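Support request from a user on the community tier.

User writes: "When I paste my C-alpha cells into the form, the page sometimes reloads and wipes my input. The last time it worked, I copied everything first. Here is what I submitted, just in case something in the input itself triggers the reload:"
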C-alpha cells in the first residue's frame, strides 16, 4: 500500500486559535514561527520525512463562515483529517466533538480522523488530566477517530508525531482490522488471516512448521527468521496460548494470536504488511486487479462457469457433506466462506433463490445453482469467492463467455448452459407462486406482494435430457413500467413469460399491455427474445371472453397460445422445460408488433427492389447475346463506366418504389 501511494493529503481543521497553522509550520520547519498568516498555503512534507517514504501535503483551513465552501471542498479531498483543539481551552474540545465531528459525519467522509490537542505547554498544572480518561469515551462514540494526541508547537513536543500518526492512519488504519472496544481482531481480518494461514500451510496439516514459517516470513518481509527468532516466537505463543503450538508447529490460533500481539503493541504496519503482500486492500478484500473477470464484447453475452470449475465445486460440496446425505447446512456454508470477507449468499438476491431440502439444507443442485446465479449476475463476485475458497491458479480460466444472443438468433439455436427468463405480469397474477413452485416451495394461499426483483434458480432437463440452469427473475408490475430505459436487462434476457390471472379480464388486459410494451422496446433496441403467455390460476376458470381475446392477441403478435398452470394444484404443464426449449430456439416465439411488422415489410421491399433494379440495370446495359451468369453480371458492373450513375438512379428508384408500395398497403389495411 505504501508503495502504491503517491501522496497523502492531510486536511487540518478546528476552531480559530486552536493552533492549526502553528502546528503545520512547526512540523515543516522544525521551528516555532514568530509570525504566521491566518491560513497557510498547502505545505509539503517530503517522502523521506517518515519511514514509509510517502510524502504528505498539509492543508491549512479557516473556520470562518466566508471560507466554509472552500473548507468543505478540502474535506472532501482529504485522505485523513487532523482535528485540533486547544489544551488550555476545554471548550474547544467540546466544540470539536459537538460541531466538527458532526460536520465530518454529515459529509459522509470515509477517512480517519486524528484528534490533536495543541498548546499543551499552556495548560495549567491544575488542569492536568489523563488523555486516555478524556478521549476513551469520545473514541468509543466516534469510531472514525483513529488516534488522539497532545502536542506543543512552541516547545516542539510531539509535533512530528501528529503527522506520523496521520500518515499511519492512511497506510495502516486500525479500524478495518482491530476492534478497540473489544480489543480483538475484526471478523474480516480473521477471515483474511485464516486464508493466508491456509495458503502458507503447504502440507495441509493444520500447522506451520519451521520451513513454512520461514517461507511466510520471507514472502512478507523479504528475510527468513533466524533460528533463535523462531524459538522466541514459539515460546511467546506457548506461554500465552498453549493451544497455539503443537508438535507440528504454529497452529491457526497461534498465528492469529501473533497478529493480535503486533496490533496491541501498536505495530499495525506488521499485520498490514502481511495482508497487502497477499493482495488485500483497506477493506480487507482482494484488490480488484487480482480478480480475473472475463470481458464481454457485447451486452447480450453471458458469463458461465466452465465444466472444470463445476467439477471443482462438486468436489468442495462432497468435502462439506460430511454425513453424505446429499445436502449441506448453514454451518457448512459458513465454513465454505470462512476465508472470504463475507458470506455472499446471506444477502439478496442469493439468499432464498434455490431449492432447499425438507430439513432446510442446501442440496447439490441448489449449491451449483447459487454459483451459477452469482456468476451470471456478478461475475467479479463469483471470481473473487472462487479464489477465497481455494480455486487457485484455475481462477484465470474459470469462466467462459457465451456468444451474443443476436448471433444465436441467426443460428436459430442457443447452446448456453444458463438461461435467464424474465417473469412479467400484474400484481396477483401468480408470479411469486410460480417461482415458489420452481424451487419446490409450498403453495401459500396468502398472496405475496413483491416489490423487489426476486430470483429463483433450478436445474431443468431439456427435451434431449440435457441439464440446463434456468434463472427466473420476477419483475414487479411497477418496475416493468420503465422497461424502455432498461436496455441491459432486455439484452440479458433469453426468454420472457407474461403471466395473468386467467379468471380476471383486467389481469389479462394489463398483461397484454406489458407484453406490447416489452415487445416494442425489444424491437427498438434490437434485443428481441421469445415470449410465452402463461395463464395462471387455471383452477379458478376463465373469464367469459377469454378465448376470443387470447386468439386475437396471439394472431396479431404471432405467438403461441398461453400455457395454463395452477400452482395451487401443482399443475404446471411442464412449463419450465417449455421455457428452456423456447430459450434454446431464440428465433421462434418472438412477438411482432404492427410497427415492427411494418419495419420488416419495408426492409423486405427495399431488398426486393434493390435486386430488381440491379437486375434491370445489368440486363439493359449488358451486351446483347451475353450469358448473364452471376460472374458475368458482377464483372460487367465493375467494368461499366456508367456504374456510378446507375447506382444513384437505382437508389432513388428503390426508395420511391418501396415507400409507395408500403404506403399503399398501409392505406389498404387501414
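"...and here is what came back when it finally went through:"
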Amino acid at each position: 500500500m505504501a508503495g502504491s501511494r503517491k501522496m497523502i493529503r492531510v486536511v487540518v481543521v478546528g476552531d480559530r486559535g486552536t493552533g492549526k497553522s502553528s502546528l503545520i509550520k512547526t512540523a515543516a520547519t522544525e521551528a516555532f514561527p514568530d509570525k504566521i498568516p491566518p491560513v497557510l498555503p498547502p505545505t509539503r512534507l517530503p517522502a523521506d520525512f517518515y519511514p514509509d517514504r510517502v510524502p504528505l501535503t498539509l492543508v491549512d483551513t479557516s473556520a470562518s463562515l466566508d471560507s466554509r465552501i472552500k473548507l468543505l471542498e478540502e474535506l472532501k479531498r482529504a485522505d485523513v483529517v487532523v482535528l485540533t483543539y486547544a489544551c488550555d481551552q476545554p471548550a474547544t474540545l467540546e466544540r470539536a466533538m459537538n460541531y466538527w465531528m458532526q460536520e465530518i459525519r454529515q459529509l459522509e467522509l470515509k477517512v480517519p480522523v486524528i484528534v490533536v490537542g495543541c498548546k499543551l505547554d499552556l495548560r495549567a498544572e491544575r488542569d492536568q488530566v489523563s488523555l486516555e480518561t478524556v478521549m476513551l469515551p469520545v473514541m468509543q462514540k466516534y469510531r472514525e477517530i483513529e488516534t488522539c494526541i497532545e502536542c506543543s508547537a512552541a516547545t516542539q513536543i510531539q509535533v512530528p508525531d501528529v503527522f506520523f500518526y496521520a500518515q499511519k492512519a492512511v497506510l495502516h488504519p486500525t479500524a478495518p482490522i482491530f476492534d478497540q472496544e473489544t480489543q480483538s481482531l475484526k471478523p474480516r481480518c480473521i477471515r483474511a488471516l485464516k486464508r493466508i494461514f491456509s495458503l502458507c500451510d503447504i502440507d495441509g496439516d493444520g500447522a506451520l512448521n519451521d520451513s513454512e514459517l520461514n517461507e511466510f516470513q520471507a514472502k512478507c518481509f523479504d528475510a527468513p527468521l533466524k533460528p533463535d527468532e523462531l524459538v522466541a516466537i514459539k515460546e511467546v505463543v506457548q506461554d500465552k496460548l498453549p493451544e497455539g503450538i503443537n508438535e507440528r508447529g504454529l497452529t491457526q490460533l497461534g498465528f492469529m494470536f501473533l497478529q493480535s500481539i503486533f496490533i496491541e503493541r501498536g505495530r499495525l504496519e506488521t499485520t498490514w504488511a502481511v495482508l497487502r503482500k497477499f493482495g488485500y486492500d483497506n477493506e480487507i478484500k482482494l484488490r480488484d486487479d487480482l480478480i480475473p473477470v472475463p470481458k464481454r464484447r457485447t451486452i447480450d453475452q453471458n458469463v458461465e462457469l466452465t465444466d472444470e470449475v463445476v467439477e471443482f465445486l462438486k468436489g468442495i460440496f462432497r468435502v462439506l457433506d460430511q454425513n453424505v446425505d446429499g445436502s449441506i447446512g448453514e454451518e457448512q456454508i459458513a465454513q465454505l466462506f470462512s476465508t472470504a470477507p463475507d458470506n455472499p449468499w446471506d444477502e439478496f438476491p442469493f439468499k432464498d433463490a434455490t431449492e432447499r431440502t425438507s430439513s432446510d439444507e442446501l442440496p447439490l443442485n441448489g449449491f451449483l445453482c447459487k454459483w451459477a446465479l452469482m456468476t451470471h449476475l456478478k461475475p467479479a463476485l463469483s471470481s473473487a469467492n472462487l479464489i477465497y475458497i481455494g480455486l487457485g491458479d484455475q481462477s484465470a480460466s474459470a469462466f467462459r463467455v457465451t456468444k451474443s444472443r443476436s448471433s444465436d438468433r441467426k443460428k436459430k439455436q442457443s447452446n448456453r448452459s444458463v438461461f435467464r427468463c424474465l417473469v412479467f405480469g400484474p400484481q396477483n397474477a401468480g408470479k411469486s407462486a410460480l417461482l415458489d413452485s420452481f424451487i419446490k416451495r409450498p403453495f401459500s394461499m396468502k398472496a405475496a406482494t413483491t416489490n423487489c426483483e426476486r430470483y429463483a434458480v433450478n436445474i431443468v432437463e431439456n427435451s434431449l435430457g440435457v441439464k440446463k440452469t434456468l434463472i427466473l427473475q420476477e419483475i414487479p408490475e411497477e418496475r416493468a413500467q420503465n422497461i424502455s430505459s432498461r436496455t441491459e436487462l432486455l439484452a440479458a434476457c433469453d426468454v420472457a413469460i407474461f403471466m395473468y390471472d386467467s379468471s380476471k379480464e383486467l389481469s389479462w388486459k394489463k398483461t397484454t399491455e406489458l407484453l406490447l410494451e416489452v415487445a416494442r422496446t425489444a424491437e427498438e433496441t434490437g434485443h428481441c427474445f421469445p415470449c410465452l403467455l402463461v395463464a395462471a390460476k387455471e383452477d379458478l376458470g376463465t373469464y367469459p371472453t377469454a378465448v376470443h381475446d387470447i386468439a386475437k392477441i396471439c394472431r396479431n403478435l404471432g405467438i403461441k397460445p398461453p400455457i395454463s398452470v395452477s400452482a395451487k394444484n401443482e399443475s404446471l404443464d411442464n412449463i419450465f422445460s417449455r421455457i428452456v426449449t423456447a430459450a434454446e430456439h431464440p428465433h421462434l416465439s418472438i412477438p411482432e408488433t404492427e410497427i415492427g411488422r411494418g419495419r420488416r415489410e419495408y426492409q423486405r421491399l427495399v431488398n426486393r427492389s434493390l435486386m430488381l433494379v440491379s437486375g434491370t440495370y445489368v440486363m439493359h446495359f449488358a451486351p446483347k447475346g451475353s450469358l448473364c451468369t452471376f460472374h458475368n453480371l458482377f464483372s460487367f458492373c465493375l467494368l461499366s463506366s456508367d456504374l456510378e450513375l446507375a447506382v444513384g438512379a437505382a437508389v432513388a428508384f428503390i426508395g420511391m418504389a418501396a415507400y409507395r408500395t408500403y404506403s399503399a398497403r398501409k392505406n389498404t389495411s387501414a
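Agent notes: The reload is a front-end session timeout and is unrelated to the input. Residues 176 and 283 are 6 Å apart (CA to CA). The domain at 8-171 is CATH 3.40.50.300 (Rossmann fold). Escalated to web team.
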